[in-house]
Automatic annotation (TrEMBL):
It comes from the Bacteria. This is CoA-binding protein. It comes from Dictyobacter alpinus. Signal peptide: none annotated. Gene3D superfamilies: NAD(P)-binding Rossmann-like Domain. Residues 17-114 form the CoA-binding domain.
Length: 150
């Protein structure tokens, strides 16, 4: 089975959302009106463990959770990382594949508007489940939060 998603494979999204509850959010902002904060707050409210990753805020707290500079720092502190959700520019995503794999993640998710072919290829080679150009909040609401699936 291929490790990427397209419109014909909603089962992969459902599987990721059902089985990976510890989400490291690369690029999580402390600013309340940022999409990364809104999406992460929604996922936290839905019962997911959010692990903020942002070197600008390292050592501080966002959404009541300690912020780490890198995925490696979070892993070294004992955080369980199953899914890495990325809020970075598309061209900044390829190195995140190696960091996610090294941190023990099983899946890499690039948010809506973020897509990169090199990142997809690297994620597949690393054995990571991979989603790009989709919002995890929208997908969660679609399958588990009452949005109509017509």
């Amino acid at each position: 089975m291929e490790n990427t998603i397209d419109d014909r494979m909603p089962d992969l999204v459902i599987d990721i959302l059902q089985h990976y509850r510890h989400i490291a959010v690369v690029g999580l902002s402390a600013k309340p009106r940022r999409p990364s904060r809104d999406v992460s707050a929604y996922m936290q409210e839905a019962g997911y463990d959010i692990i903020p990753i942002n070197p600008v805020y390292a050592g501080q707290q966002i959404l009541g959770k300690r912020v780490y500079a890198t995925l490696a720092d979070a892993q070294a502190a004992g955080e369980q990382i199953e899914l890495v959700n990325v809020f970075r520019r598309s061209e900044q995503t390829p190195p995140i594949v190696d960091e996610a794999a090294s941190a023990g993640a099983s899946a890499l998710w690039l948010q809506l508007g973020i897509a990169n072919e090199e990142t997809r290829e690297r994620a597949q080679k690393a054995g990571l489940l991979f989603v790009q150009n989709r919002c995890i909040k929208i997908e969660h609401a679609r399958f588990f939060g009452g949005l109509s699936i017509i």
